[in-house]
Amino acid sequence: MSETWQRRTRSRALRPGVEYEFDRLVIPRDHSRSFVTRLLVDRAEQGGWELDRVRITPDGTRRVVLRRRIIRQPRLAFYVS
């Protein structure tokens, strides 16, 4: 699979204490529906991403937003010297 789509990643908190990392993909119209499905399933299984939204533009380009939770480890006081 060649990477012919564009990616951008950012993070934000949707509610207090829960942060998500977002990955935006722009997939051109020349990729088949089965290819896009396979791509999104692979990213969900391998990277822990879940589908946030899909927008199909009038020219057939797919704009996909994936998200995954950012799990922060609490800093324990007894480890800090």
Task: Report on the architecture of this protein.
The protein has one helix at 33-47, and strands spanning 6-15, 18-27, 50-56, 62-70. By secondary structure, it is of the alpha+beta class. It has one domain: Phosphorylase Kinase, domain 1. Strands 1-2-4-3 form a 4-stranded antiparallel β-sheet, with helices on one face. Residues 1-5 have low confidence and may be disordered.
Q: What is the N-to-C succession of helices and strands?
A: EEHEE
Task: Name the assembly state.
Answer: single chain
* Category from helices, strands and their pairing: alpha+beta
On the 0 to 100 scale, the average pLDDT is 82
- Strand order of the biggest β-sheet: 1-2-4-3
Number of strands: 4
Question: Count the helices. How many?
Answer: 1
Total discrete domains: 1
What fraction, in percent, of the residue positions are helical?
Answer: 10-25%
Low-confidence parts, pLDDT < 50 over ≥5 residues?
A: 1-5
| The CATH C-level class name | Alpha Beta
What fraction strand? 35-45%
Question: Termini distance?
Answer: 49 Å
CATH architecture: 2-Layer Sandwich
Task: Specify the biggest β-sheet.
Answer: 4 strands, antiparallel
What is the 3D form? elongated
Kindly report the CATH topology.
Phosphorylase Kinase, domain 1
Question: What is the radius of gyration?
Answer: 16 Å
